[in-house]
Design brief:
The complex is a heterotrimer of chains A (288), B (357) and C (316). Chain A is mainly α and 288 residues long. Chain A contains 15 helices and no strands. The chains are: A mainly alpha (288), B alpha+beta (357), C mainly alpha (316).
């Protein structure tokens, strides 16, 4: 009787040089993973070092003593407004995007017209085009209308950027569900949107979470638009970025601590919700 | 319970017409099967009755009321889908009671109705379970339960058994028929499986390419197919078809087959001398005989247990004969086949239409 | 098998067909709930686009006071496409983007195969690590790389000094700076390629692989002759996706190298920022550059959409 169907891994062991290749392969893989983690390790490393060790002529791989003074400095001296603003902006824009997104995606996916394909293409294009392309008219308009540095303006722009993303991902998910359950709901007496809220939305929970997480991380990290449009009322990434604009000899310890605070939330989200995010990435790029 | 009338219904997608002017009268309480190969328009027709597809032209009435523009939920129908179409996030009880909940029916009524439907289908123990915890057969029952609870005027079934394994299919077939006998609700059932049609239907409607080829009682269709398509579609193994032309009218008409063999034709036909025809003989009427008959050579023998299917070459044609007798036949041996001429059928070779006396 | 009782008496709903008929919502009305979202998108994308076009054909320059605004034809475009600064920006965009893309896809492919072949049960674990660079803010990435590459205190120059006795400052020369940006982008975005390609490799049909085994193919032969043709559409999708992601670099070029040395790492995005806002106020020129960036972006997106459709055809 044949054993389990051979997959690519068993092909490797049978045909790919066996044990030696496996060991070499695993070493290379470990090196790659180290490559991806190394910069972050260095960030954490630096954030907890005292200044003397940061400025040592040879690399020190582990801080001794471990100090919290950098974090304390950041906590005491950085204007918390930027951090709070980032949270506000992210939550509001993500919230509105996932409110509007599924509805638009449902309409596009279930109400077929000649132009649906075009509309879908247009929507994804708005997300994929570089923000640099349209930043100039926004900046200039905002400048003339004295709307620069407006938090609401930023939120609206972020919604415009996040909405296509959520719609695209919801579309991918909806395409994979046949409309049978909705048709059964019609026959049971549901109206069109009634079926959406009672039947489809509960089924979309997972992909909505997925989309929300992806958009959350992207918006939290967003730099370009925030940097250009806001000089006061800045968001957290811009504030952290300003460390690098100081010139020569920035306070590396403080910088690292701030960088850590910036990176920690999205990293935590990514690690905790990894399954959801992975599905999201596949749905997004798989297109469908 | 209500009658369903389909009047000259057409359906087009863009410029392509897929249902061409179909008319049908379905009596109150009848079990009507829409039968046909893939793409013949049977599902489209069903979905137009349900209101899931727009009717391009023509009228559909349920219980005397024209329902062309009526929302599916208001047509007093219930539908069982091929893929069950259950509400995945609700348990069985909620699935079955959904329609009543929408209409804000009193709790006690919902309870009674669901329990009644559940008892009919043996779902009493499953009411709190979720669809993902059920097998295919159980899910199909929940779908049927959902339909029964509605107590509708018409049941619609869209190939409900296609996703079940063979044994379950046979079992569910009987149950659906028993259900119909008990509830006496008008039922319209779509399938491509002619055995389902033959065993369950009061009336079979055979569709091909958007047109009704024949409608009638199962045995009528079996014994007197209106054309070649129906003759070949119904009955398994398929009817034997022998091509030839009419020779020797008056008295005992005969058909001269392509390779010169002369066979007796069914008497009293409207066929003319020299007309190109197709002679149809069902395998169960074609038997090996020890006496005079058509000479054939056995290619393959298929013993199925109760009977043996003999595949043999009759001249240039491969035919199938069914016999209940066990014998020492072998592949390659010669046999004689005969059939009672009055059981054979004649079809015009060009149009495919049946030629009857 | 069926256990049938009579149906309990229920109240059948009165025939309210007259009022219910209106419930069958006509096609156009059912789009209503989705309109706010569509309108928002429309208002926020179309007018700016039109305005950008308008700006690009006139001569707004914040620093040149008193000039009357008039139509200048393609002058702004010529400036972007034919001056050395502009050409450099376009070229840098292409160099940096293609460089990062190729590197990302290569790393992604190698890593994906290594995971599929040799990771065994650790595969899920490794994929988590791979998610981390993706989720880090580009600002933090620029920050970290500047930490690591600092000529005095960064570990990389320090190690290289210990090994070779030569003091290097990677971002101080044109080629070095570009390489740094390319490596940085590849570091951050190659995980996307890993995830996508790993998914593709793991869903390759098993039968051709079995057949190759029976035919005696080696691992490399199997990969080259059987996997690659099947993976081609996915590779296209991944590559173009990476291109789009990598071409939007800004934090690194602005914060780490500041476009330098000189203008060696000024790509179109940075060019637009500098010319239009930071160092110029030459709004129209920047707008023209933006339109060019838009064209590149639209081309890439169209290619990407085609590639995703190609990918589905192979698998449906």
């Amino acid at each position: 009787m044949s054993g389990p169907a051979p997959d690519i891994a068993s092909v490797a062991t049978v045909a790919g040089g066996g044990r030696v290749a496996t060991i070499v392969g695993r070493i290379v893989l470990a090196l790659l993973v180290a490559m991806w983690l190394a910069p972050l390790y260095w960030l954490v490393n630096t954030a907890f070092k005292i200044k003397v060790q940061i400025q040592s002529p040879a690399p020190i791989w582990f801080p001794h003593p471990i100090t919290f003074e950098n974090l304390q400095w950041v906590y005491q001296n950085l204007d918390p407004g930027a951090f709070e603003r980032s949270i506000r902006v992210v939550l509001i824009s993500v919230g509105i995007s996932i409110l509007l997104g599924p509805i638009m995606a449902y309409a596009l996916s279930r109400f077929r017209t000649r132009w649906n394909g075009q509309i879908e293409n247009w929507i994804i294009s708005t997300r994929m085009t570089p923000p640099a392309a349209l930043i100039m008219p926004f900046y200039f308009l905002a400048l003339r209308a004295h709307l620069l540095n407006s938090e609401i303006g930023l939120i609206i722009l972020y919604i415009a950027v996040n909405l296509p993303l959520t719609v695209w991902m919801m579309l991918a998910f909806l395409r994979s569900i046949p409309a049978d359950s909705e048709e059964a709901a019609y026959i049971d007496g549901c109206s069109t949107w009634g079926a959406f809220f009672r039947i489809v939305l509960p089924m979309m929970r997972a992909s909505i979470v997925s989309g929300a997480l992806l958009v959350l991380i992207l918006t939290w990290n967003e730099f370009f638009i925030a940097f250009i449009l806001m000089s006061s009322n800045i968001t957290f990434p811009v504030q952290v970025g300003s460390f690098l604009a100081v010139g020569l000899n920035p306070e590396y310890g403080h910088m690292a601590a701030a960088g850590l605070m910036l990176s920690l939330p999205p990293i935590l989200i990514a690690v905790i919700f990894r399954k959801s995010l992975l599905t999201g990435v596949h749905a997004f790029a798989g297109g469908k | 319970m209500a009658s369903v009338t389909i009047e000259n219904v057409r359906k087009s997608y863009g410029n392509t017409e897929v249902v061409h002017g179909v008319s049908l009268d379905i009596a109150d309480g009848a079990f009507v099967v829409l039968l046909g190969p893939s793409g013949c328009g049977k599902s489209t027709l069903l979905r137009m009755i349900a209101g899931l597809e727009k009717i391009t032209s023509g009228e559909i009435s349920i219980g005397g009321r024209v329902v062309n523009d009526v929302h599916p939920g208001d047509r007093d129908i219930a539908m069982v889908f091929q893929n069950y179409a259950l509400y995945a996030h609700m348990n069985v009880f909620d699935n079955m009671s959904f329609a009543m909940t929408l209409k804000k029916a009193p709790r006690a009524e919902i309870d009674a109705q669901v329990k009644w439907a559940a008892s009919i289908l043996g779902l009493g123990d499953f009411l709190q379970r979720f669809p993902r915890q059920l097998s295919g057969g159980q899910r199909q029952r929940v779908a049927m339960g959902r339909a029964i609870v509605r107590n509708p005027a018409v049941f619609l079934f869209d190939e409900p058994l296609s996703n079940l394994d063979a044994k379950l299919r046979v079992q569910m077939r009987t149950e659906i028929k028993e259900l119909h006998q008990r509830l006496k609700t008008t039922t319209i059932y779509v399938t491509h499986d002619q055995i389902e049609a033959m065993t369950m239907a009061d009336v079979i409607v055979i569709l091909r390419d958007g047109v009704i080829e024949q409608a009638g009682r199962p045995m009528e269709i079996y014994d007197q197919p209106a054309n070649l398509f129906v003759a070949e579609f119904i009955g398994s193994p398929a009817m034997n078809l022998l091509r030839g032309e009419i020779a020797g009218a008056d008295g005992q008409p005969k058909v001269r087959l392509a390779d010169g063999i002369l066979v007796d034709a069914p008497p009293g036909g409207a066929a003319k001398l020299g007309q190109k025809v197709v002679l149809g003989v069902r395998p169960e009427h074609l038997r090996p005989t020890l006496g005079l008959g058509l000479p054939a050579v056995i290619s393959v023998l298929e013993p199925t247990g109760p009977e043996t299917h003999i595949y043999a070459r009759l001249g240039a044609t491969e035919v199938c004969a069914i016999t209940n007798e066990r014998s020492e036949m072998q592949a390659g041996s010669a046999i004689n086949l005969s059939f009672p001429p009055e059981r054979a059928l004649l079809f015009d070779a060009t149009t495919g239409a049946a030629l009857r006396g | 098998m069926l256990n049938v009782m009579n149906a309990p008496a229920t109240s059948r709903p009165p025939d309210a067909s007259a009022s219910r008929r209106a419930r069958n919502s006509s096609d156009l009305w059912r789009w209503l709930p989705s309109l706010p979202g569509f309108l928002l998108l429309l208002v926020l994308t179309l007018p700016p686009f039109v305005y950008a076009l308008y700006l690009s054909f006139i001569n707004i320059d914040i620093q040149a006071p008193g000039i009357n605004i008039h139509y200048v034809g393609f002058a702004n475009y010529k400036e972007v496409l034919f001056t050395s600064a502009g050409v450099s920006a376009v070229l840098n965009t292409l160099i940096l983007s293609f460089g990062s893309t190729i590197l990302s896809v290569l790393i992604g492919l190698v890593a994906a195969y290594l995971i599929a072949l040799y990771a065994g049960r650790m595969a899920g674990f490794i994929v988590v690590f791979v998610l981390i660079p993706l989720s880090v803010s580009p600002v933090a990435v620029a920050l970290v790389f500047s930490l690591m590459l600092d000529p005095l205190y960064g570990p990389i120059p320090q190690i290289s000094y210990m090994l070779s006795g030569v003091l290097i400052s990677p971002t101080s020369n044109a080629i070095g700076a570009r390489v740094v940006i390319i490596l940085l982008q590849a570091w951050q975005w190659s995980p996307i390629a890993v995830i996508l390609l790993l998914g593709g490799i793991q869903s390759l049909p098993k039968e051709p692989i079995e057949a190759a085994l029976i035919d005696g193919a080696s691992l490399f032969q199997t990969i080259r002759r059987i996997h690659m043709p099947l993976l081609r559409p996915l590779l296209a999708v991944t590559a173009i996706f990476e291109f789009i992601l990598c071409s939007q670099v800004f934090a690194a070029t602005q914060l780490l190298t500041n476009g330098g040395p000189g203008i060696a790492t000024v790509d179109l995005s940075l060019y637009i920022y500098k010319v239009g806002i930071a160092e110029g106020g030459r709004v129209s020129v920047a707008a023209a550059a933006g339109v060019i960036a838009l064209i590149i972006g639209l081309l890439s997106t169209t290619l990407w959409l085609r590639a995703t459709r190609w990918e589905q055809e192979i698998y449906r």
